[in-house]
Amino acid sequence: MLPKKRRPTPPGEILRYEFLEPLGMTQKELAAALGITRVRVSEIIRGRRAITPDTAFRLAQFFGTTPEFWLGLQQDVIMWDTLQTHHREYEKIKPVKAA
Q1: Is the pLDDT of residue 95 over 90?
Q2: What's the domain range around 56?
Q3: CATH number reported for the structural domain that contains residue 78 in this entry
Q4: Residue 4: inside a domain, yes or no?
Q5: pLDDT category, 30, cuts 50, 70, 90?
Q6: What is the model's pTM?
Q7: Please, what's the b/e burial string for 53-85 (b: 16 or more CB within 10 A of its CB; e: otherwise)?
């Protein structure tokens, strides 16, 4: 369920504050461990790049989580942003009545 009053925490913030900082790990070290570029990690942490299924599998394998955890965080942000952008259009849609 999406929060009503605030945007969900982006996965990059979770990655930084809940995983990297407690481990004392740098973005460069994480990138090397995952086999991806430091730029990719940096963009995710700054909220400029989304978590893809590939990234989700890599993060899940490394941190002992699930890909669904990472993709779920990303999906919540995407859903929230979409709803904020189009909510007036959605309100105009009338539900079909069951026969």
Answers
A1: yes
A2: 11-92
A3: 1.10.260.40
A4: no
A5: very high
A6: 0.90
A7: eebbebbbeebeeebeebbebbbbbeebeeeee
Pairwise CA distance, residues 94 & 99, whole Å: 15
User: What residue type is assigned to position 50 of the chain?
Assistant: A
Cα(71)–Cα(93) distance, integer angstroms: 28
Structural domains counted in the chain: 1
Owner of token pair 């730029």 = 39
The answer to the question of residue 67 being in a domain is yes
